[in-house]
Amino acid sequence: MIATTYRQLAYAMRRQATADPHYRYVPRRMKAGSAMRGFSMDCHYLPDEHNPKGCLVGAALVELGTPPEALVPYDEDPLSDLVVAGIIDIELDDALYREWVLAAQEAQDWGYEWSDAIAKADAEIPMKWGEEAE
Prior knowledge:
- The chain has helices at residues 6-19, 56-63, 68-71, 79-84, 95-109, 114-124; strands spanning 2-5, 30-36, 39-41, 88-91.
- The chain is of the alpha+beta class.
- The protein has one domain.
- It has a two-stranded parallel ribbon.
- The two termini are 19 Å apart.
């Protein structure tokens, strides 16, 4: 299990998007009936033949030290399920960081390039970004 915070996850997501700004995550298919505008995505944290870098949150979790093999059984599950399963211990250090993470992930899932997903989250959840505290 890794211990992290939403702030650390947000900064890791920003680093991933900076490293590959034009990467576009492509959900495998849409499924009816979720909280996201009536649809859910068949989304996966880890790289596969459709998405060689995986998703933005998955890439950030691996950067922060989550072993990829620990994510395999939860690859289609929401981040909250990883917490419940004990894969990650994520502290809610600031509710705004959590909202920002969710906004960036949703934008990515709707087809935004990683840099555009970050920009969309920044526009929706205005925050002051500076040097990340260690």
